[in-house]
Amino acid sequence: MIKRTILFVVAGAAVSLSAPALAVPANAAIYEAGMCLVQRDRRAAIALFRGLPLDRSAADLSALAAGPARDCAGGASGASSMMVRGAIAQALFVRDFRGTMGHEPRPGLDPVDLGLDAAIAVGGPPATEPYRWADCVVRNDPAATERLLRTDIGSPQEAAAVSGLQPYMSACMAMGAQISVRQSEMRSLFAQGAYHNSYRYWSGQLRDAR
Fold first, then answer.
1. In what order do the strands lie in the sheet with 3-10?
2. Which residue among 50, 63, 178, 203 is least enclosed by CB atoms within 10 Å?
């Protein structure tokens, strides 16, 4: 399968981005499944998110088999845990905060703590570095993050939104650090960061999301 790799290097920091060029339809289906999960059974979607690991291992969707959202799982079958987490986070961000960081939650919907504090904690293990990096990007450029999450997967608008985030993508890397993130995973990481920071703002842990 053809692959593309982009390497950004600024002030001695590097972010390597790579992804299968032919994976767009499958990625879109994962995010459609995430929206379906949140719409059909928000509680089950949140429980699934919290139970999934941060890595690229295959997501275990068996907990949905007996619930009202079971028909949603097909689109995410075989997807990585990271991708499913991102699909759920994006759907929750749109539903709970109308896709805008700092926005008041929708009436009747209490935002939830998705449990990302450990993943973004300074000094955490190298495996969680992509989450710390994404959290930094989201906090520094919420407007560009929102634009990215409003685009269609694989669209020119998505590519343009990613380009708009490049200054902070590099600035949020520690001197001499390197991380490898697949292009298909960027939306996932930023969606998780967007919801997490919206929750922190709403719960008084952040002064301002902008």
1. 3-10, 13-20, 178-182
2. 203
